[in-house]
Queue: 2 jobs
Job 1
Amino acid sequence: MSSLTNDSWMERARREVPPRKLAKQLAIVRAACGVFGREGYTRAPVDAIAAAAGVSTRTLYNHFPGGKALVFRTVITWTANEVREAQLERLRAVLDPERPPHPDTLERDLVALARAFAALVADYPDHFALVRHIHAEVEHLPEETLTAWQEAGPLPVATALTAAFAELEKGDGLLDLHGDPALAAVHFVALTSATIVQRSHYGVRPLPEAENDRLLRGGVAAFLRAYRRTGGR
């Protein structure tokens, strides 16, 4: 599913899967999201997921022959697709190549981008509850699950942010990425939204708005001290 949006996946599924079967699969996935968010991957029993979905354990395995591992991979990929699309939309809204920032508004615009990314934690709490468990239980998760999650969400977002920063460097651009735009993208996220995610424990304990603002503005300022172009090439 990683190359598709959820809407396009649903459109295809409606053509290929009988309605009752598809409805049952979606019920299992929705129920599993809540169970995994509360219990994590290791502690969540298959029978609890089945009970939450209102189906038998046998029915769950009929729809997901890979059992808990396949259900978890389906859930995290689905939610990662949702968050990816929202994050890319926010990125395009702030750093539109057709309307690049002015030097005087660069810091303002990057703060706006950092705020938009950080707000995803509150906007998609179920997804970030799952991500919190991924990081806590990484040694217990199948490698294909981690790969599916990365390919559905984090990797395409990192690629898009890298490209957006590379655009800001072109010509007599606003940034000097020192030959490594991908690393600059990593640093931006680490200094801004990732700090909020970590400090709030993936949104479980939200920070006061003033503290959010202080951390995001400080992160952007630090990023610009490292990457803002200050002179000629």
Job 2
Amino acid sequence: MLISHVIFNGKLIPESEAQLSINDLAIVRGYGIFDYFKTVAGVPIFLEDNLNRFQQSANLMDLPVNYSQTELKSLIDTLMRANAMPDSGIKLLLTGGYSADGYSISEPNLIISQHPLKRNITLEREGLKLLPFDYHRPFSQVKSIDYVMGIHALKAAKSQGADDVVYVQDGLISECPRANFFLISPEGKLLSPADDVLQGITRKKILELASTEIDVEVRDINLQDLKCASEAFISSTTKNITPVTSVLGYKEFAPQAGPITKRLQRLLQNLIYKNG
């Protein structure tokens, strides 16, 4: 049986040996940041973008990253060679550190972990249902480890027959707990919420790809936009482009991906999987 390894503060160790003290701010206060990317056939996807966002999140949360990007890439390569998982998800986790008073930021702990990741093509084809949920993430530009509301909201979604939630506050739609949100307008424009959402890497690539094919608008999106939209989808590292078939109480879409969503799926597929 292959032993899974992690990188713990720069050292490769078996995952079973990785331990955090109970006074780490990630444990006592939920204070920390992370980033996440995938590998396809042993190749990291959009690694540079993820490392840049990791550094940005750390800066915004006053957490020093005591490794250069070159050093981080070397550590990731070491982990990938040790684990031999060609199709995987890799997480970089930076904690608030061991805090003497349980509140002040200390020297962060860096943990890089890897797990097998299989693409869910069925979900990408058939889509999912979303429940509107009244919330807006604080520190929306930060990829924080705080998922309290997302986990709580998922229970509400499941109870009403939805697969997940989409955050809506004061009539504005922002994002899902683990994905960015998009609409296709009646005129065929791609709409994505503006700056006050997590700057998803897959989202970034979709906007770049789409701008060569159709009109793109990055702006505030409201419930009226949703009601008038012809298609909707979400995006993330694990979900790629996944169609939204319903936003409960507001809009029913086609039971599978619409024509523009399918077009964008093909473009993203070619970029990530190289026609594979």
